[in-house]
From TrEMBL:
InterPro entries the record matches: Epimerase_deHydtase, NAD(P)-bd_dom_sf
Domain NAD-dependent epimerase/dehydratase: from-to ranges: 5-274
Pfam family, one: Epimerase
Organism: Candidatus Scalindua rubra
Family as reported in the entry's similarity comment: Belongs to the NAD(P)-dependent epimerase/dehydratase family.
Protein name: Nucleoside-diphosphate-sugar epimerase
């Protein structure tokens, strides 16, 4: 069935890739990408959007008027706009992160209500509190931390963090605004019969991510190696053993495509979604892979003190989403880093100008 899909943050990493992949899979869908172009580098995605016949709208989800769509039907909103930095608001005003990540989501929900549109919400593993995550039992191995088999906290096993992990405690303004949005979405489902699915994603990675030090770490690491710039292992004694799971944007697309085609089956569900143990890397391991792929060995520094908001390890336990949908990730860490490398190599001049 033909759909009109609005992707907010549609010129960003996740939004632009989802737009391009959706249009390729469903040429009869009309895909609108709305973005306020706040993220440096998002402008590089506009040509791709145009080439793939995606309608671009310059707009800001903080402004209700930008979301009026009086003359257009919308059947689905994929909410993927955000101020996505976990450090947002700490050394700057808190207004932007709160107004975009929370109030902006409310504006999107109102639009969904008006248009009777479904919602797929891109949430984050950062909704889990930092103190609780720092208290899980871990093992220290040669190149990484791992999650121990024995745990005292519910919702964590050696498979990772599940949706039942405790939610009490601070988690950054980024994580809090995303969790608050999740709660409001659940109220809209209950009160207004809206249909929505929430995906709490671990690190998403792949081409066209404008990686920077506080968001998009795997691209940032590959940039450093490709352009021969030094990098630092920050925190946890500067050993580089901290671990994240990573999911290729194409694997995430497969899940979202499945969800949007069977919305009634997944309505109201919250899923942890990520690479899981199999697709996870420590910084040390990332350095090794980046060296192998680029052939460059760069200078690696150490900053022993932790930054605010750092966590030693995050692995998504995908059990629930796998059980409900049958979806599995296909891409391994090396595939993801190779795809990032190829994209940087093919666009190095412009990326160097815009991002370094
Ligand atoms: N990339 C990840 O690792 C990751 C992990 C978990 C969750 N997420 C979530 O996925 C979504 C997309 O993240 P991303 O990695 O693509 O980030 P991104 O910064 O690449 O893209 C976000 C886009 O939103 C736009 N934007 C910001 N404020 C806006 C506003 N007020 N109105 C309209 N557009 C606005 C930016 O210009 C940018 O193009 C976010 O909701 C984020 O919380 C991302």
């Amino acid at each position: 069935m033909s759909k009109t899909i609005l992707i907010t943050g549609g010129a960003g990493f996740v939004g632009s890739n989802l737009a391009v992949l959706l249009k390729a899979r469903h040429p009869d869908f009309s895909v609108i990408a709305l973005d306020n172009m706040k993220r440096q580098g998002s402008e590089l995605n506009l040509e791709r959007l145009r080439k793939h016949e995606i309608i671009f709208m310059h707009g800001d989800i903080r402004n209700k008027e930008d979301l009026s769509f009086d003359d257009k039907g919308i059947s689905l909103i994929i909410e993927s706009s955000a101020e996505p930095s976990v450090l947002a608001g700490y050394n700057s005003s808190t207004e932007y992160v709160i107004n975009t990540n929370l109030m902006g989501t409310v504006n999107c929900l109102e639009l969904a209500r008006k248009k009777k549109a479904d919602i797929i919400y891109l949430s984050t593993s950062r909704i889990y509190p930092i103190k609780q995550l720092s208290e899980i039992n871990i093992n220290e191995e040669e190149t990484r931390f791992t999650i121990a088999d024995d745990q005292d906290i519910s919702g964590v096993t050696s498979k990772g963090i599940s949706e039942t992990f405790p939610l009490d405690g601070a988690r950054s303004l980024y994580g809090t605004t995303k969790l608050a949005s999740e709660l409001i979405i659940q109220e809209y489902i209950e009160m207004f019969g809206l249909r929505a699915t929430i995906n709490r994603c671990g690190v998403i990675a792949g081409p066209w991510q404008m990686g920077k030090i506080d968001q998009g770490v795997f691209t940032y690491w590959m940039f450093g190696h490709y352009f021969n710039k030094s990098l630092d292992y920050i925190g946890f004694c500067g050993m580089g053993k901290q671990v994240r799971d990573l999911i290729h944007i194409e694997d995430l697309f497969e899940l979202i495509d499945l969800q949007l085609c069977r919305m009634s089956d997944f309505n109201g569900n919250i899923y942890n979604v990520g690479g899981g143990n199999k697709c996870s890397l420590s910084l040390l391991e990332t350095t090794q892979l980046c060296r192998e792929i680029t052939g460059n060995k760069i200078e690696m520094g150490k900053i022993e003190e932790n930054r605010e908001m750092d966590v030693r390890i995050y692995i998504s336990d995908n059990s629930k989403v796998q059980k409900d949908t049958g979806w599995l990730i296909k891409k391994a860490p090396r595939d993801i880093l190779c795809d990032i490398y190829t994209w940087i190599r093919d666009n190095d001049r412009i990326l160097e100008k815009v991002l370094l």
